[in-house]
Amino acid sequence: MEEISLQEILELLSENWKMIIIVITLFMVLATVFTIFFINKEYSSSTTLIVGKPEGYTSSVSDTANELRINQQLVGTYSEIAKSKSVMSEVNSGLGLDMSDSALSKMVSVSTVNETELIQITVTSKDPVLAATIANKTAAVFMTNISELMKINNLQVVDIAEVNKTPVSPNVKLNIAIALLLGLVVSVFIIFIRETLNTTIKTVDELKKLIEDIPLVAIIPETSELDTNGGK
Fold first, then answer.
1. Is 218 within a domain?
2. How many domains does the chain contain in total?
3. Residue 30: left (phi > 0), alpha (psi -120 to 50), or beta?
4. What is the reported pTM?
5. For the Tyrosine-protein kinase G-rich domain, which residue ranges apply (predicted)?
6. For strand 43-51 and strand 118-125, is the pairing parallel, antiparallel, or unpaired?
């Protein structure tokens, strides 16, 4: 296969710039339409809880550092309990949701803020109101379960989940950017495939390259040479 120089590649792309623009624009328009009209929007709401001192408990200043360390350790344990089967089942039945416990569990995520006593429960749903409702219900059931299991009331709600009507997905800008790159790749691929399949001779240099390896059979003299030799 004949090698192609960088200059030839740039010239080829320059000659076909209109097609590149058209293909990229087409991909971006299709991505925008598909994202806006055919992909379901999802919304998320979060509630934040803090692991603190039990109700009615008092401590000296010297105990504060130790309590903080213990609470941070409890955060990891509590986070696992927040998504336990028992909590998800109680939330599901309490709200009368038309879904399985496993489906509900996939909607709920529990995270901790590094080196803090904060626990964040986030719910993602196609319904923004339902997302907030599930988040707050999960927090309430979770706190009750901790109280019963650990025999201690050391969880408090910092922020309740509110209805967020701004979708978290799909990401329109990201999809358009991906479409732009994909359109560029496809258009360049089409140009090179078309150029590879094109056997048309465009320049004298291409003609010379084509015939340079063909064996010489005869030489046709110029007209001036024939006249000099008497037409022989």
1. yes
2. 2
3. alpha
4. 0.70
5. 146-195
6. antiparallel
